[in-house]
Specification:
It is a single chain. The protein is α/β, with parallel strands linked by helices. The chain is built from ten helices and 14 strands. The strands form three sheets. Strands 11-10-9-12-13-14 form a six-stranded parallel beta sheet, sandwiched between helices. Strands 7-3-5-6-8 form a five-stranded antiparallel beta sheet. The protein has a three-stranded antiparallel beta sheet with strand order 2-1-4, with no helix packed on it. The structure holds zinc ion (ZN). The site of zinc ion has 6 residues, from loops. The site of zinc ion (ZN) has 6 residues, from loops.
Length: 343
């Protein structure tokens, strides 16, 4: 079968591979709609270290082609939403609630596409634990909306959850690409007060406001922490980092109050270091939490996202601004994402 992926670092193209093999509890799907993500382009440039001959893509709506005999809830022909994180639901780590880190060996093994197996930019792709990881696409949610739940909405919301946004909190969101926009929306749905979004692109600013941002700041207007402290001398309750470099952790430390939270959902580069002066972290005594994570996996999580859309509380379909028809167009879409990572 044909797939699009990284032949080696900085070298993407079409790859010929064997069709994935069905194993117990699992399903084979063909993609109906896919979305390239900066995680795909970042990985293709070696952001997670060297990888070879790997089909990329981890955001998909698919049609079930084949299921193992023990799969109860799905059959060939079903149109399903595929979470980008598909944990092994037998992993012991899940019993402690580590959905993304659902593994007994290795880091981030719940995130299998891009990481430990071929992704969804293929004529066929494999999904483990189909009954626990797949969701039937609801009639009243469009393909475009559903596609935006599997990573963008789920990861953006994860940022707001890890930040523990409470009613009336003042929240800063770094970056208003699609994940940052969904972090804004997640913070708004959790009842934040002021939501300060940081970004510069006019179309993204308009969407940020629509999704709940109450103020917009730009790094072009000077030091961000100084700008935030000028408005909130006492600091803000939490920050959500959905873009930029590790410098945003230092910036966040200069913005948050004692007892505040810094929630990172940005995929830093393997070459980056994280360091900050101890004084910024209250000498380790200020109860400032720094947490980093990624969207939680599995069917139930995505069902919750779909319920929010079906109830018309949020339309993540507005995140889409390019649409291509045809499997071969993956190449063009990938290149657009690679060259314009903020779209
Ligand atoms: Zn993604």
């Amino acid at each position: 079968m044909k797939g699009y992926g990284m032949i080696s670092v900085d070298n993407v193209g079409w790859i010929e591979k064997d069709k994935p093999v069905l194993t117990g509890g699992d399903a084979i799907l063909r993609p109906i709609a896919v979305a390239p993500c900066t995680s795909d382009t970042h990985t293709s440039h070696g952001g997670a270290g060297p990888k070879e001959n790997l089909i990329l893509g981890h955001e998909a709506i698919g049609e079930v082609v084949e299921v193992a005999d023990d799969v109860k809830h799905f059959k060939p022909g079903d149109i399903v939403v595929v979470p980008c994180v598909t944990p092994d639901w037998s992993a012991k780590a899940l019993q402690d609630g580590y959905y993304n880190e659902a593994h007994d060996v290795g880091l981030m093994q719940g995130f299998k596409f891009l990481n430990s197996k071929d992704g969804v930019f293929a004529e066929f792709f494999h999904v483990n634990n189909a009954d626990s990881n797949l969701v039937l696409k609801p009639e009243n949610v469009s393909i475009e909306q559903a596609l935006m739940t599997v990573d963008m909405m789920s990861t953006g919301f994860c940022g707001a959850e890890m930040a523990d946004v409470k009613y009336g909190d003042t929240v800063v969101v770094f970056g208003i690409g699609p994940v940052g926009l969904m972090a804004v929306a997640g913070a708004a749905l959790r009842g934040a007060g002021e939501i300060i979004a940081i970004g510069t692109r006019p179309d993204c600013i308009a969407l940020a406001k629509e999704y709940g941002a109450t103020k917009i700041l730009s790094y072009k207007e000077g030091d961000l922490a100084d700008q935030v402290r000028a408005i909130y001398p006492e600091g803000v309750d939490c920050t959500i980092i959905a873009g930029g470099t590790t410098e945003n952790i230092n910036q966040s430390l200069r913005m948050v109050k004692a007892n505040g939270t810094i929630s990172n959902i940005n995929y830093f580069d393997v070459s980056e270091d994280i360091s900050f002066p101890a004084a910024l972290w209250g000498l380790g005594m200020a109860d400032i939490k720094i947490v980093g994570g990624f969207c939680r996996g599995g069917a139930k999580r995505i069902e919750r996202m779909l319920n929010i859309i079906a109830a018309k509380r949020l339309d993540p379909g507005k995140l889409l601004n390019y649409k291509y028809e045809g499997f071969d167009k993956i190449e063009e879409a990938f290149k657009v994402m690679d060259e314009n990572p903020e779209i």
